[in-house]
Specification:
CATH architecture of the domain at 14-29 and 46-193 and 235-291 and 410-602: 4-Layer Sandwich
Radius of gyration: 22 Å
CATH topology of the domain at 14-29 and 46-193 and 235-291 and 410-602: Glutamine Phosphoribosylpyrophosphate, subunit 1, domain 1
Structural class: alpha+beta
Largest sheet: 7 strands, antiparallel
Helix content: 25-40%
Length: 603
């Protein structure tokens, strides 16, 4: 776009950003006074400031989904820790304060950018299926698939946790602070306690199944059986002991010995829905380093995680298809822009649902899916005025397409930049809220095996994402690092949200690179997604845990989209995008999603 035309867009974009959200959870702190405690007494999200622009810092920054975790990460960075050091400390803290979303009983994907070499590395800490499972894990005796609620609770759906092995592997490569020191802040807070936030209270209150596990019931409810009230100081001495053991002995203390024994027993001895995990499954777990998926988009390169998550490849396909259109000439979130994004998404999801799975078990045609000529061919299917309806995969294959069930809504994402310019984008999850609803030694176990296809075969053809021993279930997590024209990191971002993560992340990349928004403005965009079905638009809703009203006009696009042939649905879409921009001058600008209770901290 010509410079004059771009200049005319700036006031319009600023007005656009103000129209949609009052974004208020992020803040930049003043340095603590000498002798002050490491963490302030209040754990509540900051009062909304109704900012529409990103928070800035000079030297380091962390954007995370809970104030306690953000403050702990900020302190590690202030003391000279690396981005990976801070990630270890943030994840330990989130295990305590955001147990519904992630923790050491789950898995994660991490992208790391090294400022000295410009290299992007992808670390895979996805859970694995126990060795004793079969493809029929989620089939009833009559051969029909179980319902999601039947499968999710208890030991059946628990995968071998991967997050600690992954963090240790990344720390061995990129850490500066000793491993054991990184757990001290979370250990201290677990013993001292933290205040129950409105969001945590609401999720406990709305989850009747959480009472079924004795340890979870004792931890999350009062003696009279009521959910812990807002402001209650919640301690977790069992988690403090677990983290102390891991800090002292390394990740091996989790995967071998008494902790591993307790995990395996809890999974196998569930009274109504036992699983197959053994201590050998835990001791055999290995985190992996994989080649990131990096594709050009405009003048930048967008890097994401490769399979077994579908996130990086599907975001890359959406952007590759849209690169054939001049998105910069469209109004942000205009009917034309949303139509194009939705159509590109349905084409990408058609391929995702058929081909993407654990590459150690399935033939994933990643190069073909990302081939520029193939994406040009897919882009030609987009009509400017009419939706193509349900899309079919563009490549041929022997595998059956399978659309995953809804789930995975309680993931978390955090982004970190350290004083050296190293970057972490990490998405972590226990899958459903509170995972499998099983608590062991102070942490929640995941239910990630429900991310497999419940049907191993459809119409006689195998499903790529079927259950198999040792296999990693397909994910949608999409931690993303964007490199600038010169090859240096420019943006780090990602989101929770199940399979909608892909749409949430792609939209923010478009906002940053096509529409010239800053990180907070991009995060503030009203959500819209298409997973090769209805086009879903975010409806207005109130976020009681941070007192923000999400005042989006996205639902007002419905009429125009329906005239283009879209089936439109409206939903509350709880993204949790946390991102950081590294400006060309080296300063930092971060954003936190107003739909959750996160915070941006930096100096």
């Amino acid at each position: 776009m010509q410079a004059a035309a771009r200049a005319r867009l700036i006031p319009r974009r600023a007005l656009f950003a103000l129209t949609f959200f009052a974004a208020g959870c992020s803040q930049t702190p003043t340095p603590p006074a000498p002798g002050a405690p490491d963490l302030p007494e209040s754990d509540a999200p900051a009062p909304p400031s109704f900012r529409t622009d990103a928070r800035t810092a000079e030297t380091y920054m962390v954007s995370a989904a809970h104030p306690v975790a953000a403050r702990i990460g900020e302190r590690i960075l202030a003391d000279g820790g690396s981005a990976v050091d801070a990630a270890v400390a943030v994840q330990a803290a989130l295990t305590l304060v955001e147990p519904q979303s992630s923790g050491i009983g789950g898995g994660a994907f991490m992208l790391h950018y090294a400022a000295d070499t410009g290299e992007v590395r992808a670390y895979d800490g996805r859970e694995t299926a126990p060795a004793a499972v079969t493809p029929e894990l989620f089939l009833k005796p009559d051969g029909s698939p179980m319902g999601f609620r039947e499968a999710v609770g208890g030991g059946r759906a628990v995968g071998v946790p991967g997050v600690l092995r992954m963090l240790e592997r990344a720390h061995d490569a990129h850490g500066r602070t000793p491993w054991r020191a990184l757990f001290r802040p979370a250990i201290d807070r677990a013993r001292d306690g933290f205040r129950v936030t409105p969001r945590l209270h609401r999720l406990i209150k709305g989850d009747a199944a959480l009472r079924a596990d004795p340890a979870a019931r004792e931890h999350f409810f009062t003696e009279s059986g009521e959910p812990l009230p807002v402001g209650h100081r919640l301690t977790n001495p069992a988690l403090a002991d677990t983290l102390q053991t891991v800090a002292r002995r390394g990740a091996a203390a989790f995967y071998e010995g008494p902790i591993a024994g307790d995990i395996a027993r809890t999974v196998r001895r569930h009274p109504s829905n036992p699983g197959k995990m053994t201590r050998d499954d835990l001791s055999d777990y290995a985190a992996k380093q994989r080649e990131p998926v990096c594709v050009p988009y405009r003048e930048h390169r967008v890097c994401g995680m490769p399979p077994p998550t579908s996130g990086g490849a599907t975001v890359a396909q959406i952007l590759g298809i849209l690169s054939r259109f001049d998105m910069r000439a469209t109004e942000p979130m205009s009917p034309r822009a949303v139509h194009r994004i939705a159509e590109a998404s349905r084409l990408a999801f058609a391929d995702r649902n058929r081909f993407l799975a654990d590459p150690d078990f399935a033939q994933v045609p990643l190069a073909g899916l990302l081939d520029p000529a193939y994406l040009r061919q897919r882009a030609r299917r987009i009509d400017p005025d009419t939706s193509l309806g349900r899309a079919e995969p563009g490549l041929t294959g022997r595998q059956a397409a399978h659309r995953q069930s809804a789930g995975g809504r309680s993931t978390t994402h955090f982004s970190i930049v350290d004083t050296q310019g190293n970057v972490v984008a990490m998405t972590s999850s226990v899958e459903q809220a509170f995972g499998a609803h099983l608590m062991v030694r102070g942490f929640m176990l995941n239910n990630q095996l429900t991310d497999f296809s419940f049907r191993p075969r459809i119409d006689g053809r195998p499903v790529a994402n079927r259950v198999e021993p040792g296999k990693r279930p397909r994910s949608s997590m999409a931690p993303t690092i964007v490199l600038g024209p010169e090859g240096a990191a420019r943006h780090a971002l990602g989101s929770p949200g199940g399979s909608r993560i892909i749409g949430y992340t792609a939209l923010r990349v478009i906002g940053l690179l096509d529409w010239g928004l800053d990180m907070q403005q991009a995060i503030n965009l009203p959500n819209m997604t298409n997973r090769n079905g209805p086009t879903t638009l975010e409806k207005p809703w109130h976020a009681p845990y941070n007192r923000n009203t999400v005042a989006t006009t996205a639902a007002g696009l419905a009429g125009e989209l329906e005239r283009r042939g879209h089936t439109v649905e409206r939903a509350r879409m709880t993204s949790g995008v946390h991102g950081i921009t590294i400006r060309p001058d080296g300063t930092l600008a971060g954003g936190a999603d107003p739909r959750r209770e996160g915070m941006v901290l930096g100096k």
